[in-house]
Amino acid sequence: MTVRTGPPRRPGSPAAAGVFAIGMAGTTLPTPLYGLYRQQLGFSELTVTVVFATYALGVITVLFGAGNLSDATGRRPVLFTALGLSAASAGCFLFEGGLGLLLLGRVLSGFAAGLFSGAATAAVLELARPGRESRAGFAATAANMGGLGCGPLLAGLLAQYAPRPLALPFLVHLLLLAVAALVTWFLPETVAHPHRPRSLRPQGLVIPPAVRAVFAPAAVAAFAGFALLGLFTAIAPSFVAQTLGVHNLAVSGAVVCTVFLGSTLGQALTGRIGVRAALPAGCLILVVGLLLVGTSLATVSLPVLVAGALCGGIGQGLAFRAGLTAVSAAAPPEHRGGTLSAFFLVAYLGISLPVVGIGALTMALGLRGAGLAFAGCVIAVAVTVGGYVLRRPLPAHRPT
């Protein structure tokens, strides 16, 4: 009989990815429920996009003001703070106290996502065993997108087929957050000398000079891809219900989940085709997906919308993982958390600004017209950055 000696093995990269996924799932949990809130509170489509953008504003605020916090204090304290903010957000939705609490809940959810984005990604990468860095990189990006996709699917299923549709999804998420907190307690700290920052004032985000040439095209591609994600998480459920006449919340959640499923698939493909080819290929496939989304809006077709979600998600996933890999590889270790946070900041600008524009255009052009205008604008961005990286390819880093 072999007797093991030494301390028990502590959870590593897969466990950190699980925490990441649970945290991100809470940020999209309300997506299929907005229609119910509209009926209960009586607000417009513009208000829905403002509520959604409030979340993105919270993300951007944290990424800009505290995106590099985990580089100083350590990954675990930041993860615990993010989990606490997620729980507070769920509590706001459980009270169902009107538009004010919805906005507060979304802001808190944005704060949590902002902390998760840099700290959890860095933790997953740094906890990888030697030789498994590529697998850990996929785990980090898949946990991000997979968690975002599971949120609306879980909420849609519970809201459609279980009691208390505006409460049960958040109660289930609180239980998952408790499990994630327990796992985080046992995660090893990856920052060598964690310490309290000298000042609590926002430090902003500084992109190291060595990263800037890679950062610009990668971040713009992420902006375009996340704009597509914003369209589906903010507008797709309304389009499915109001234009297509499908009022099943599980279907709405599944449609939104499809774009994130495509993203995860695209990230998996990045490892096969390489970073240098993945970014322009991702932009091209993203354009095809947006053309399909535009066609679905013009022809009022659910199957074409699902096809556009899957295709656009694949393109977004290819470009996202390629950009994240290039930026992470170029960033010095002591600035990795802050640099990744800057990358996510640009990406979340893609979720917030275009989505609010759609909400405003909806008042004048209707849901279909606003969606078509949006698709045209994002296609222009994706074509521009795709053409740029074809002329100036990214370094041939191994996908992380």
UniProtKB/TrEMBL annotation:
Domain of life where this protein originates: Bacteria
Domain Major facilitator superfamily (MFS) profile intervals: 11-393
Main localization of the protein described in the UniProt heading: membrane
Keywords associated with the record: Cell membrane, Membrane, Transmembrane, Transmembrane helix, Transport
Alphabetical list of PROSITE patterns matching this protein: MFS
Coiled-coil blocks: none
Localization terms from the record: Cell membrane
Membrane topology: Multi-pass membrane protein
Gene3D superfamilies for this protein: MFS general substrate transporter like domains
Transmembrane portions of the chain: 12-34, 46-66, 78-97, 103-125, 137-161, 167-188, 209-232, 244-265, 277-298, 304-330, 342-365, 371-390
InterPro entries reported for this sequence: MFS (IPR011701), MFS_dom (IPR020846), MFS_trans_sf (IPR036259), MFS_Transporters (IPR050171)
Protein name: MFS transporter
Organism per entry: Streptomyces lunalinharesii
